[in-house]
Design goal:
48% of the residues lie in helices and 13% in strands. The chain is an alpha/beta fold. The strands form 3 sheets. The protein has a 4-stranded antiparallel β-sheet. α5 packs across α7, α5 crosses α8 and α10 crosses α11.
Length: 289
């Protein structure tokens, strides 16, 4: 957790209203703001101590060497370090998972950023209340709560917090969008509604698209609506060995096109050294050696 109002609101709400939940407080000092970063860590440790909760405060410099691979992008590296810290604490303390303080404003920001970057509907689903990264369970119970309500709550209970000055820097797109979302509740709700709709669409596509066998007739793809065809293509490519992270929309369209356009090349390469063949109206795939 951070020393911000949202994280402290979540912590205090769990302590005050869910005595059945065992908590271990975790904080990663990103060491990006000198004394301010240290003060954030000190506040988290102090709050945990006052609440008689176990607490682990770690430095980025201690966690980063254990990342393999280490992301080149700073934001991705910070996130990877937090996830690594969470995994270690959950494993060492036999915990069920991690509870995060992402709120409604964070959800709206995520959706708006992805829209501005041209994401397809499947990428505009926002964050999920419950998700897993491998074996790590992550819960976000505050996704429906505006940030202003969380600040009001910590004021009501007399809990002090610290604002991260870097969140106000116009250098980052999210920071430029944040004030607009906080001012306009209707915009926030519209973005969240869009995320809910896209998530429902994504679920429908996943449940409706057919599963393709190792070798399948071209009609299995050519007769499908584009969204269903791409999802079936995605699952099939993974089943024959393609890496999931390399299956961009253009790659999926490449396979669908093989099934719909008889004039397209009958042998084509796909990520993961996968060779896909079309012969006699059938499509098959294998790993190239």
């Amino acid at each position: 957790m951070s020393g911000g109002a949202d994280s402290l609101a979540l912590l205090r709400a769990i302590c005050d209203h869910r005595p059945d939940v065992s908590i271990h407080v975790a904080h990663l000092n990103h060491q990006t703001r000198g004394a301010d970063s240290d003060a954030d860590a000190s506040l988290v440790a102090e709050v945990a101590r006052n609440l008689s909760l176990p607490c682990t405060v770690s430095l980025l410099s201690d966690i980063a060497p254990r990342l393999n691979p280490s992301p080149a992008n700073a934001s991705s590296r910070y996130r990877a370090a937090r996830i690594e810290l969470f995994r270690e604490i959950v494993t060492q303390n036999n915990l069920r998972g991690v509870i995060l303080a992402h709120h409604a404003d964070d959800q709206a920001e995520t959706v708006l950023v992805r829209l501005l970057r041209g994401s397809a509907p499947a990428g505009v689903t926002g964050m999920s209340v419950e998700t897993r990264l491998g074996s790590l369970l992550m819960l976000r119970p505050l996704l429906g709560v505006p940030s202003q309500r969380l600040r009001e709550y910590v004021r009501e209970i007399g809990q002090t917090w610290r604002d991260d000055a870097s969140n106000a820097s116009p250098q980052y797109l999210r920071n430029r969008l944040r004030p607009m979302i906080r001012r306009d509740g209707e915009l926030r709700e519209a973005l969240i509604a869009m995320a809910d709709g896209c998530r429902a669409l994504k679920t429908w596509v996943s449940e409706t698209s057919p599963t393709l066998s190792r070798e399948f007739p071209v009609e299995m793809l050519s007769g499908l609506p584009p969204a269903l065809g791409r999802e079936s293509a995605r699952r099939w490519l993974i089943s024959v060995g393609a890496p999931p992270g390399k299956l961009a929309e253009q790659v999926l369209n490449q396979l669908v096109n093989m099934a719909t356009d008889a004039a397209s090349a009958a042998r084509q390469d796909f990520p993961g050294n996968i060779l896909v063949r079309r012969k006699g109206g059938m499509i098959s795939g294998s790993t190239e050696t």
